[in-house]
Specification:
By secondary structure, the protein is mostly beta strands. Helices cover 4% and strands 22% of the residues. It has one helix at residues 183-189; strands spanning 9-11, 14-16, 24-26, 29-31, 34-36, 44-46, 49-51, 54-56, 69-71, 74-76, 100-102, 120-122, 140-142, 160-161, 180-181. The strands form four sheets. The chain has a seven-stranded parallel sheet, with no helix packed on it. The chain is elongated.
Length: 199
C-alpha cells in the first residue's frame, strides 16, 4: 500500500485506490501525478502543491485545502462536496489556474471572492455553491446544474453557461457582459428585472 509522506516531492507517479480518508498531509508536492479511485474525504492537505495533476473517480468531499496550491489540475467523475476553495493559496500574479472539473459533484462548495479566470465546469452538479464576489471571466460552465448557488457581485464576463440550468443570476447585481445562456435560462434572468413575459 502506498503511503504519502509529508514534505516529499512526487513526479509523474500514479496513485490508485488509496484510502486516505480523514488523514493529514503537510508540504507534499505533486507534479504531473495521476490519482485514480482514491478516497481523500475529510482529509487535510496543508501547504501542498498540485501541478498538472489528474484526479479520476476520486472522493475529496470535505477536504481542507489549507494554503495548498493548484495549477493545471483536472478533476473527472469525482466528488468534491463541501470544499472551501478559499482556504487554498491562489497567488495574485495568476488569474487563470487552468482548473477543470468534468462530471463532478461540487455541491456546497465555496469559491467566494476568488479570481479563477477560464475555469472549466462541464456536466457538473454545482448546487448550493458560493460564487459571490468572484471573478470567473472567460470561464466555461456548460451542461451544469446550479440550483440555489449564489452569484452576487460576481464577474461573469464572457462566461459560457450553455445548456446549464438553475442559474439564479441577478443581471443588475453581477457583470454578465458577453455571457452565453440557453434561451430558457435567459428568460429566467429577466425575472430579476421584474419583466413579465406574455404570449
Amino acid at each position: 500500500m502506498t503511503i504519502l509522506t509529508d514534505s516529499t516531492e512526487y513526479f509523474e507517479e500514479t496513485f490508485k485506490g488509496l484510502n486516505n480518508a480523514a488523514q493529514q498531509f503537510i508540504g507534499i508536492t505533486f507534479e504531473e501525478c495521476e490519482f485514480l479511485d482514491c478516497d481523500f474525504s475529510e482529509s487535510w492537505f496543508r501547504a501542498c502543491k498540485f501541478t498538472n495533476c489528474d484526479f479520476a473517480r476520486c472522493n475529496l468531499s470535505l477536504t481542507d485545502m489549507a494554503n495548498s496550491q493548484f495549477f493545471g489540475v483536472n478533476f473527472k467523475d469525482s466528488k468534491l462536496v463541501g470544499v472551501d476553495w478559499t482556504r487554498a493559496d491562489w497567488p495574485q500574479y495568476y488569474r487563470d489556474f487552468e482548473l477543470k472539473f468534468t462530471r463532478c459533484m461540487l455541491n456546497d462548495s465555496s469559491f467566494y471572492g476568488l479570481t479563477l479566470n477560464e475555469l472549466v465546469l462541464e456536466e457538473c452538479k454545482v448546487h448550493d455553491a458560493d460564487f459571490r464576489e468572484g471573478d470567473f471571466t472567460d470561464s466555461q460552465m456548460t451542461h451544469c446544474t446550479f440550483d440555489r448557488s449564489l452569484f452576487v457581485h460576481t464577474n461573469l464576463t464572457r462566461v459560457d453557461f450553455s445548456d446549464s440550468t438553475g442559474c439564479a443570476i441577478d443581471v443588475l447585481a453581477n457583470e454578465i457582459k458577453g455571457a452565453k445562456f440557453s434561451t430558457e435560462e435567459a428568460i429566467h434572468l429577466l425575472t430579476s428585472l421584474g419583466i413579465e413575459l406574455v404570449d
